[in-house]
From TrEMBL:
Involved in protein export. Participates in an early event of protein translocation. Keywords: Cell membrane, Membrane, Protein transport, Translocation, Transmembrane, Transmembrane helix, Transport. It comes from Streptomyces gossypii. This is Protein-export membrane protein SecG. It is found in: Cell membrane; Membrane.
Length: 75
């Protein structure tokens, strides 16, 4: 039960983190006006930290899914 709640929480957090990323262009972000923004330079510190946080949350999300799968298999 605890892992199911954790999975829901991490799924919501991962969704929010992905939506916070800036569009890189060439996809749906261009269709809705995201391609109009000019890039001032490389990634800022905030963007790099957001990338790192997204990767950490995604790895934790994946680990929870593996644990839930193992619990269901051996239960």
């Amino acid at each position: 039960m605890g892992f199911s709640i954790a999975l829901l929480a991490f799924s919501g957090l991962l969704m929010l983190l992905v939506l916070m990323h800036k569009g890189k262009g060439g996809g749906l972000s261009d269709m809705f006006g995201g391609g109009m923004q000019s890039s001032v330079g490389g990634s800022s510190v905030a963007e790099r930290n957001l990338d790192r946080l997204t990767v950490v949350v995604a790895l934790a999300w994946f680990a929870i899914i593996v644990v839930l799968g193992l619990l269901m298999k051996f239960d």
